[in-house]
Amino acid sequence: MTVISTGNVYLGTPFYNDAQKKRVKLAQEYLAENPTVVRVHFPFDYEFVDPEEPNPKAGIPSLKWQLATYQNDITGLVNANVGVFLYDMDNIDDGSAFEIGYMRAMHKPVILVPFTENPDKVKKMNLMLAQGVTTLIDGNTEFEKLKTYDFNSCMSNPVTGYRIF
């Protein structure tokens, strides 16, 4: 059977510490190996640079940067047909939660890949996130499934094993 690549993936995640950055690199490698993925949009690969702002990381970014970054991310979400979110359960990120909600509001599937540095701790997840995503792939034990997940059909795998609040 011939596999046709149709998965146009939006890869969302916080990208602030070394562990998060390492996960992104690995996710990009896994998705590149997946025969059902045609394209991956990672927002930080398309970051807007305001030429009038000499050092955007030094404080509050310019309004121009804020508006352009927001619009670029929304365009990435709209153009994707599926979202993959590397969700840091130890450092909840409002931006990722917003992007997940935006994708679901457009009736697009969302694959949630949660990670924690404390895998023995009781796992807890907000109801809106747990019931809002299409599929859960445990980041600590199943991350490599991104290599073989069928992004052409995006079959459901509901969130289980979490205390929902």
TrEMBL record:
Record-linked Pfam families: Nuc_deoxyrib_tr
GO molecular function terms noted in the UniProt entry: transferase activity
Keywords annotated in UniProt: Transferase
InterPro entries: Nucleoside_deoxyribTrfase
Full protein name: Nucleoside 2-deoxyribosyltransferase
Species whose genome carries this gene: Lactobacillus jensenii
